[in-house]
Batch of 4 targets.
Target 1
Amino acid sequence: MSECNVKILAIESSCDDTCAAVLSGTMLLSNVVAGQQVHHDYGGVVPELASRAHQQNIVPVVDIALKKAGVKKEEIDAIALTKGPGLMGSLLVGVSFAKALSIGLNRPLIEVNHMQAHILSHFIQTPNEEYSPPAFPFLCLTVSGGHTQIVLVKDYFDMQILGQTLDDAAGEAFDKAAKIMTLPYPGGPLVDKFAKEGNPKAFSFPTPHITALDFSFSGLKTSFLYLIRDGKINNPNFVEEHKNDLCASFQYRVVSILIDKITRAAEETGVKEIAIAGGVAANSGLRNALQEAAGRHNWKVYIPKMQYCTDNAAMIGITGYFKFLRSEFAGIDLVPNARFEFGRTPAGS
């Protein structure tokens, strides 16, 4: 069997999106995502409701992915799944379904770390489009609702975390700022939308003094909360009247923190291949700031398509494919890990 003909069925269920994809080698054949509207009324993801929705969605999502790919389930060579990190109840649904399918089809399982998969999404190939993945080694700024990391990527699975958040993630900070302004869930994209019409210098927020390449966003959230509280004391309509400027100023500070840290990492490592990944990689302020930094520092940057920024199974599939080539299969006794980590120690050490 040719490596490029290896067909991977991938399943992702780490949070509130039920996802399935089919890849042939690095070529993406289908990528299906079913969101969960039930959480909008609660202003955030409710784990128990997420798990129930996954149970309802997973069979039709996998079926649609196979049909869109034009692949029969018997033609699949392996099943890749998200082991973690994520919500335990959500992960259990994906892992349990993958196990049952593995037994029924007599196909091997491949466990995937969700955060590694975000990074490797840059290697997904799509029909009739230029394929230009990063060259090793490269730095990846991985930013999502649950994680903020700078990763030195030496090979597909030789990844070293150089810095990460000490408290809250950048994506969580965006969502909390939106909630403080009583914007509907999910708030992060709305902050980005309103920021485009605002003045990023209208309000000033402190820069955390964190050593090395680590991050902290809890103080920034607190500062934003106090600004809104004090503003409302004198003007009950403070948020509505200054919404665009508030969003622009908050986004500017978050993005400047991220860019400053990745710039330091590039200087310390000498690496000029720079990528971003994760849900916050969809933020227009971050994407634009990275392009501007690339011009100043002579970087070659890699910005993922929007569909690969948020949770998806295509990234699980590409990671599964590279593991398939290394014959890294999981046993039927595998269990999900809500805090599945990687990269603090370089591979092979």
Target 2
Amino acid sequence: MSDPSRALVLFSGGQDSSVCLAWALDRYEHVETVGFDYGQRHAVEMAQREVVRTRMAEAFPGWAARLGADHVLDLRGFGAVGETAMTQERAFEITEKGLPNTFVPGRNLVFLTYAAALADRRGLRFLVGGMCETDFSGYPDCRRDTLDALQTALNMGMAQDFAIETPLMWLTKAETWSLSKALGGETLVELILEASHTCYKGERGTRHAWGYGCSACPACELRARGYDQWVAAGRPALAK
């Protein structure tokens, strides 16, 4: 069975996964990261992954001692199957199913399955992801009941005892900023603002109060609205 002090963070380089990385480093003795190249339009996030990891280790020496290997898995074949706005140049809109066309069918299911296979080999018990159903884009594979079902299937199929951890599941985007501050103070907040990347269009030319982005795609709109709400509340820290 996997070591209960070891975790694997699904790490895209975005705001949410950066907060999850900090959360895991604050909680577990050994933390590794995994990223997925699925041909996403915002491929700049892949470059920002190492920037976030490096700056986090520099800013928090205690976490640096816990930060282990990084892994990148090639899932371009899978990304091409869905033909969504995440992998093709097309306008962001709602589909006939009532879902944003940024939804890549099965993406989190595939990501977690690959992550579990990697974790099995690396002896990592906890799989940490930034999925959230409180303040999100409506993706069905971000729901906790979906992840509970997948956790059961993975453990049955791999004879393991994995636990899928989702520290942001019931938090709004404003509360995610509060959690960032609770974990690492203003140092972590500024690190995430400056180094992470969430914009679906991959725009890093303009630094807004809430970070870099086009300010028009669904990811930017969610992030900006959450940051504004957090600032309006006085930039509180969330109890860990």
Target 3
Amino acid sequence: MLEVAFWCLLLLGVYPYAIYPVLASGVGRLRRRVVHSDDAYLPFVTVITAAYNEIRHMESTIRNKLAQDYPAERLEIIVISDASDDGTDAVVQRLAAAHPNVILLRNEPRQGKTAALNMAVPRARGEIVVFADANSIYRPDTIRKLVRNFADPEVGYVTGKMLYANPDGSLVGDGCSAFMRHENALRVAETALGSVVGVDGGVDALRKTLYRHMNADQLPDFVQPLDVVAQGYRVVHEPLAVLTEETLTTQSSEYRMRVRVALRALWALWDRRVLLNPFRSGIFAWQLWSHKLLRYMSFAPLAAAMVLNWQLLQHGPIYVLGAVGQVLFALFVLFAWVGPSALGRFALSRYCMYFALLNFASAVAFVRFVRGQKQVLWQPRTG
């Protein structure tokens, strides 16, 4: 009985990371829903960036959007300052004086990114709204590649491809980059299924008419795509719409970000739990269970399987091998965290460390979710 429980728990724990991507890719090849994009489709676009004390990035990100290969007369840039007090507003005002399509809005008092978007989107003139973070640097054709997909009337939301730059070679940065490569590949498969489950937030576009007002504690990068699916439209991935951001460079900063994202995602799943019903949303319910809920909860079956493994050592060499694997995993994590740099930079060390960080952050987020805790405000991401 213990052996059956062990294998069930182990499979449940690894399913969202290893089994689901294979299944999604296979089903996607059979299903293969095509996006009918058109490079000649050039609607009016509003780029919205919510910012709190982002003076370090603000000028470069605005100039990056102004330099897009997109007709300037069909492009509007709105920066909504969430009660910034570091000079962010002055930078935007200076650029707005030289570029009439740059607009500054101010949210006072500070209420967080979601409330800022609720304020800014109704004021946007664009048929398509592009969401960009303050530190998001687009390739010159990113906006054009994003919006061409809206030529397909079934498409309501488009997410681009996040590429993390890791200029200082930090271990957590390497793990984060590997994680995003896995996510981008999965999004290609999910687009073929019909709709993508997870998006990036910094390189996304939405039909303005599909935007729905959100509570301040809700995660816009997750809730808005779910609302688009609930309205009968597709959420798709555009791999040629590329965003580059620097990775976080310390375990503590990455951990805090992962806890925040997981906590807000759990609340989003709770708020939109009707979409977990396969009789309501069909194959998308399977995707949502697999890609999000079971992944955020995988720490539980994995931890239980680890404990059972030690109780099964007398039941065969496979369990001894499993125990040895646990010890090696712990050593790799330890080496990456505090060990000699030569061992810490070994590929297995940094990937094991990042996997452990992800699951520990999910566990902490789940405990906070059960306690009813929510997070609305946070400090700007640091690279």
Target 4
Amino acid sequence: MTAIADKGAAIIIGAGDATGGAVAAAFARDGLVAVPVRRTAAGLEPLAQRIASEGGHCLPIGGDARDEDQMIALFDRVEREIGPVEVLVFNIGANSPMGIMDETVRRYRKIWEMCALAGFITAREAARRMAPRGRGTIIFTGATASLRGSAGFAGFSGGKFALRSLAQAMARELGPKGIHVAHSIIDGAIDTEFIRSNFPERYALKEDAGILDPEAIAAEYVRLHHQPRSAWTHELDLRPWLERW
């Protein structure tokens, strides 16, 4: 990894096959070393191959974002082997519906840990390294549930509400220190295998740009990172033009 040291890193927590992967690839094309993170590193191999084929650099890492010790070690490793963490994107979803009378404490706590606790741990570690340098970008991926709770989504909306509040508090605290904290509301279906297989009528809207393109989302995240300090966006609202809201 010494060959790419000092280039700067973009850590993407929750680098799945759609949005997270697209974000990692976009920041690699932008010149940073992409550090995609998910529970198992083996699942990141196709993404790493894609980034390499595009001429970018990638350090895929497996880890549990809810585990404080693992995340501290991850950030230490990235700063040691690559260089400064310039971007953190927290992209864990945890969208798991369940009626309130059937919801369990175990499920509710796990969703909260994935949405909110993991967001706090990883963003805190990013801030600890960015603040002394007076620069950096932290982006949280939110959802429709960040703004309103829907029937059957008490756990998910609770976690996403907490994440949005965290983003606001961090923006007010860290903005004056030179760190750009943004929260993105993704409102609508995303072009994923899950949507294609389970909601074919919705997926058919892809032909008319009626569902969110992960590559377009990723481009907006890169744009957030490059915004001048005189005009920072805190909350970005992204939805396809056909989406009702």
